[in-house]
């Protein structure tokens, strides 16, 4: 891989930008070219868009090996996990758009109220225009290409910035996309925060950001300067509640899978566990067995498992391992795992019991393979613990009773919820995927992605003899009578 080079910005006073192959003025040049192209793309029909999506799909399949190798180089992610979490969902998202874009694009006729008698109404889906997509490192391929597919289906041009923390994957994304698109349609900008900052100055028609909550606030503030609409796909602490009646073996298996997938570096990973005191031992016993069966290894040998990846970099390794020390200092017990090795940013699958709500592990999003267990006496106490924190991206409930899951759903808020499993809601493209407040704004996947990258334009067509004329002045007593009757009976 070529090292990122420092490109000195002009003496315009702008920040020095760390890029691969472009200068700050390239951003403006490409933005202007895309602006022009976007006017052309407004006229594109479903056949053109399907053709582009098919080319994108073929490119993903063609580059599958390179994508696997890149992710292994970036944080030792296994090819199997790359196929399951990067390639498969990306192809599924592209296929869904190929299958449905014709229908999605069609203007939708809607009812017209009697006050506009004779008029017709429809919603027209127009492309937003030039869009910026900023992607994170944790699923660096999927989280760059899935929103791109939605943006293309909706007829936009895209300037895409992959994460600098997974540079091999960013290289592959750039190579792959430059085979399919000219830069006036899709352009990739590799580089660090300064590149993102420079990009955010341009007056985009939409910004789609996936990343952390603090950076989401920066993106939203930058977008506000141009009144650009934003989709923020953020993170947070996604709780799992295990109810008294839950099947402990099933719960342990599913939670451990979700927690240790990508070594816990998943936005919708079950962050912490809420469980009745009496059930802790049974859960931990099942969780240990499951974890060992997944990685076919004793805890001290986890490093040998090809299916357990590493923490992405030394900074995150330091942050995640410090949560163990802090929690233990505040009374937590390491029920399982707890090994850390800085030489390759390895942290073993770890379960912590007796965790204090004051520990840092219960404040920050963990984003690593640590599962803190907190006990509760009543379901309301568990709900209170969740509601004291910002609204999470996901909330998981394990129970055999419908009444219990309904009770929890009605009294909490989260981007999405899975009952008796974790993470899988994002597999169904008929469900909107997104957060709420601190965990995000807006959503995507399937139709929701198409709508995110479209402007829903209202079009009302009135007949020659319009009843609305009655509302024109002068407001005679006859007109006021008609308005009074309409107010009472017809609206
Ligand atoms: P991050 O916020 O640090 O970085 C994301 C992107 O933003 C990167 O491309 C980065 O270069 C850029 N960036 C960083 N600082 C910036 C700044 N000051 N101004 C503009 N851009 C900036 O996030 P990350 O560490 O790459 O990813 C992990 C976070 O993303 C976690 O919080 C996780 O929960 C969240 N996430 C959310 C989803 C989702 O779908 N909701 C998916 C994956 C990850």
Automatic annotation (TrEMBL):
PROSITE patterns: ALDEHYDE_DEHYDR_CYS, ALDEHYDE_DEHYDR_GLU. The keyword Oxidoreductase applies. Keywords: Coiled coil, NAD, Oxidoreductase. Pfam families: Aldedh. One of its GO terms (cellular component) is cytoplasm. Belongs to the aldehyde dehydrogenase family. This is Aldehyde dehydrogenase. It comes from Leptospira brenneri.
């Amino acid at each position: 891989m070529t090292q990122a080079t420092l490109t000195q910005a002009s003496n315009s006073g702008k920040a020095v930008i760390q890029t691969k192959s472009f200068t700050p003025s390239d951003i403006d040049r490409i933005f202007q070219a895309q602006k022009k192209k976007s006017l052309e793309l407004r006229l594109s029909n479903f056949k053109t868009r399907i053709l582009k999506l098919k080319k994108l799909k073929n490119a993903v399949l063609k580059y599958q090996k390179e994508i696997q190798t890149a992710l292994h180089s970036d944080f030792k992610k296994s090819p199997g996990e790359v196929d399951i979490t990067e390639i498969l969902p990306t192809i599924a998202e592209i296929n869904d758009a190929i299958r449905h874009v014709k229908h999605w694009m069609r203007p939708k006729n809607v009812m017209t109220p009697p006050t506009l008698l004779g008029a017709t109404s429809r919603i027209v889906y127009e492309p937003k225009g030039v869009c910026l997509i900023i992607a994170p490192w944790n699923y660096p391929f999927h989280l760059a290409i899935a929103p791109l597919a939605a943006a293309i289906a909706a007829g936009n041009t895209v300037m895409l910035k992959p994460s600098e923390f997974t540079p091999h994957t960013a290289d592959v994304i750039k190579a792959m996309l430059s085979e399919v698109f000219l830069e006036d349609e899709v352009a990739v900008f590799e580089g660090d925060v300064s590149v993102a900052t420079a990009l955010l100055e341009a007056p985009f028609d939409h910004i789609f950001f996936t990343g952390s909550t603090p950076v989401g606030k920066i993106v939203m503030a930058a977008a506000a300067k141009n009144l650009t609409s934003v989709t923020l796909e953020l993170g947070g602490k996604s709780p799992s509640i295990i109810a008294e009646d839950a099947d402990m073996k099933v719960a342990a298996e599913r939670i451990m899978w979700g927690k240790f997938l990508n070594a816990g570096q998943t936005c919708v990973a079950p962050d912490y566990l809420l469980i009745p005191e009496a059930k802790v031992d049974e859960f931990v016993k099942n969780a240990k067995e499951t974890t060992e069966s997944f990685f076919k290894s004793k805890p001290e040998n986890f490093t040998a498992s090809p299916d357990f990846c590493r923490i992405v970099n030394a900074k995150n390794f330091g942050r995640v391992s410090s949560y163990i020390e802090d929690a233990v200092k505040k009374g937590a017990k390491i029920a399982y795992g707890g090994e850390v090795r800085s030489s390759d940013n390895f942290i073993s699958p770890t379960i912590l019991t007796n965790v204090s709500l004051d520990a840092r592990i219960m404040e920050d999003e963990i984003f690593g393979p640590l599962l803190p267990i907190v006990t509760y006496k009543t379901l309301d106490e568990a709900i209170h613990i969740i509601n004291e924190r910002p609204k999470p991206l996901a909330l998981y409930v394990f129970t055999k009773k419908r009444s219990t899951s309904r009770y929890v759903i009605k009294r909490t808020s989260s981007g999405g919820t899975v009952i008796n499993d974790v993470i899988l809601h994002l597999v169904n493209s008929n469900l909107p995927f997104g957060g709420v407040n601190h965990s995000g704004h807006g959503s995507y996947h399937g139709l929701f992605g198409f709508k995110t990258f479209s402007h829903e334009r209202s079009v009302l067509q009135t007949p020659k003899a319009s009843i609305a004329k009655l509302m024109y002045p002068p407001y005679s007593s006859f007109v006021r009578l008609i308005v009074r009757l309409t107010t009472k009976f017809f609206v």
